[in-house]
Amino acid sequence: MLTLGIESSCDETGLALYDTARGLLSHAVHSQVAMHEEYGGVVPELASRDHIRRLIPLLRGVLETAGVVRTDIDAIAYTAGPGLAGALLVGASFAESLALALGIPALPVHHLEGHLLSPLLSSEPPEFPFVALLVSGGHTQLMHVARVGAYELMGESLDDAAGEAFDKTAKLLGLGYPGGPALARLAEDGHPGRFKLPRPMLHSGDLMLSFSGLKTAVLTAARERELTAAERADLAAEFQEAVTEVLAAKAISACRQRRLFTLVVAGGVGANRRLRTRLDEMAARHDIRVFYPELELCTDNGAMIAFCGAQRLLQGEPAKGGGAFAVRPRWPLSEVVG
Q: What is the CA 316 to chain-centroid distance, rounded?
């Protein structure tokens, strides 16, 4: 079964072709970072318009790379939420229209479920069941994953997600957009320890997280005096240490609670090198194996949507047709059950 995946939830347009017999055949992503950079963040209307411009060229590209034609596609999976309403509508309407024209089913997919399953596209995929640390944009969650569609929320951020904290802290330090990667690069030049930042809820006894207070602590430190370039780097490094220490500790605790020895990390923050290093070190002490998606699949992409849709169809989920559709800008992952 050949599935086309379409992702347009925010500021990346991603298309991919996944074959259940041959694996991922092709995928392409267009990032809108350069367009939004001058505004310091994503402008929803501009994002929606850019998705419209990119979809057809990207479709032609993935078809050519895979060596197939449109009529070879058996099903289309598309991101229906969560995300920006206008951006979601662009991808959904394109997917449903193409499916109607080709006479094939279309399947709405949860964006975070796509991230959650993306490590399964790796050459050495994890086996079910496992604990997943989902760190994507405005979401930071710990999930117990029994199988495709069977997800249990174990813990989550009570306020700012890790990605949001990175972006907001980067802005406090005068870094550009996108803030998270910029802060991580600055942290490489710094040394943690000069500034003493809190590790929120590290010893709370549960799996909940909180990062808004950490962001406030950075603001306080930055306002005490004019920071030198070296001090800014040190503050960035200390912030990164605080976030990654909490994330790693909570993830390992989740595995130990369920007596599971497989941890999956997914989402954009999962590309952070310091987080990967810390998780690998802590996991090794508890005989836990950590799985990550390929770096190119950490950010939003069509491959994870195509794969997720294909797995859903394989387990018998009915795909609708006829062109009618709806998007869900707010869509709790807990509602996605198999």
A: 26
* C-beta of residue 77 within 8 angstroms of C-beta of residue 3: yes
Provide the 3-class DSSP secondary structure of residue 200: coil
Residue from 100, 36, 121 nearest 302 by CA: 121
Q: For the chain, which domains are there?
A: 2-116+297-335 (3.30.420.40), 128-292 (3.30.420.40)
| Calpha distance 183→178 (Å, rounded) | 9
pTM here? 0.95
Q: Are 219 and 205 in contact (CB under 8 A)?
A: no
Local structure of 304: helix, strand or coil: helix
Strands 75-81 and 106-110: parallel
- What tens digit of pLDDT does each residue of 126-183 get? 999 999 999 988 899 999 999 999 999 999 999 999 999 999 999 999 998 899 999 9
Counting residues of the chain whose pLDDT is more than 70, the rounded percentage is: 99
Three-class HEC string of the chain: CEEEEEECCCCEEEEEEEECCCEEEEEEEEECHHHHHCCCCCCHHHHHHHHHHHHHHHHHHHHHHHCCCHHHCCEEEEEEECCCHHHHHHHHHHHHHHHHHHCCCEEEEEHHHHHHHHHHHCCCCCCCCEEEEEEECCEEEEEEEEECCEEEEEEEECCCCHHHHHHHHHHHCCCCCCHHHHHHHHHCCCCCCCCCCCCCCCCCCCCCECCHHHHHHHHHHHHHCCCCHHHHHHHHHHHHHHHHHHHHHHHHHHHHHHCCCEEEEECHHHHCHHHHHHHHHHHHHCCCEEECCCHHHCCCCHHHHHHHHHHHHHCCCCCECCCCCCCCCCCCHHHCCC
DSSP string, 43-67: -HHHHHHHHHHHHHHHHHHHHHHHT
Name the CA radius of gyration of the chain, rounded. Answer: 20
pLDDT at 214 over 80: yes
Q: What would the mean pLDDT of 202-220 be, rounded to a whole number? A: 96
CB distance 96 to 124 below 8 Å:
no
